């Protein structure tokens, strides 16, 4: 049997997980296939013929697969990526199998280093992490110490390999050496009862007998020993490779949304990014000489350790809950949200073509309405889903999409149960004569929430009770660290005046709702109160038609 399919722990031969795949197609050191290892069963001639037939069949199938893959690549009209591509080895299934097996066997040091970095950043050993924080602080203050890193790493490797080969026999000699003791140490136990010498004793021994350390019992030197196929370490490397592929996929998905900003799918947006990058380059040319790099390295490195501390995330979450539950914190968050909304609106308006601004434009609004239904109750009903959904709206109340916050809509859109409710179903609604949609502009969420005196949440929703009253910018009564009651008129004191001022300033551009803002009322803070409905506003620009 192939040695790769034998478990070192059990002591008995067992079939590898890949024994029936391409990974077990390589011959064993004895020159025979794994299938021919039990040659003492049956006649030798029949076993040899069977082994030869199986080997010939595998070789033929692999050759045909390789030929098919090479034919597909040769028929492709895509040009080579680089001139050196013609010097690369062509795609072959046996080569891929061989290289993958070797990569699994020899990727252990890479994952060992990765685990060490993650363990350090995750504070699995506090003293170890604190040591590296101190090292980084010294290096950030004296960056020239980085030149010592290669020789330091080499010295550490030599010391570790020396300790692995030569056992320590200094301790036994040190504890038996007659070292002068101080009066304070006379009350300690005898030398034979102390298993580990003190640093003072080690120093005294090294200065008294500088050449008598000895080498101890000599062990075999450390040599590379990749794990064989079928061992536990082999499957650990295979598991790490699987997780590494997942990390690459997640990283790709994280960066993929930035592609539309860089591929000129929107000319004005990509042009603004190019202008901003050029301006930043010019500014950094003059600012870079005055940047305190040592301070930046110190704060950045130590901040990475602090952010990954187990106490940091709960502390930040508790602080955010405290900010959300206090009126001052909500006011600060509202100001920051309105500032971000105004910046986003300014960027969106700057993207508009000149003829849109010259003719004049306005925002057409649509409201998305949803109702909450518990999962258990939804399971016993037909046509509804658990949680927030427009399918849970009751008969006779507002539609999933309406033209006003009061639920009025001139377009009755029937949505079948289970189908997705999308605002794209409303893009065909008719505009007034003399207006048309701005080309390239789509429906967008009103993140600012100026139509509501209580504000909106991070998704643009305003939460209300079962009768669409008592609004709040948070789902009260649902837990998750938010208040269990809607805000009263005193909780949003001054907010209505700010919205009125905003509406007055934007009246000329007709960018706000035609209805008065959704105001809060005086409510009794009933702990049993729970929001059951919510709504948010969508906007889309319409421009006057050419005369």
TrEMBL record:
Query: Could you give one GO CC term from the UniProt record?
Result: peroxisomal membrane
Q: Where in the cell is it found?
A: Membrane
Biased composition, class Low complexity, residue ranges: 16-48
- Please list the residue ranges annotated as the TECPR1-like DysF domain: 90-472
Q: Which InterPro entries match?
A: Peroxisomal_Membrane_PEX28-32, TECPR1-like_DysF
Superkingdom classification of source: Eukaryota
Biased composition, class Polar residues, residue ranges: 1-15
| Record protein name field | Putative fumarylacetoacetate hydralase
Species of origin reads: Kalmanozyma brasiliensis (strain GHG001) (Yeast)
Q: Which GO terms describe its biological process?
A: peroxisome organization
| Record keyword Disulfide bond present | no
TM region positions: 130-160, 271-291
Q: Does the keyword Membrane apply?
A: yes
Q: Which UniProt keywords apply?
A: Membrane, Transmembrane, Transmembrane helix
Regarding the membrane, this protein is recorded as: Multi-pass membrane protein
Q: Where is this region: Disordered?
A: 1-52, 501-526
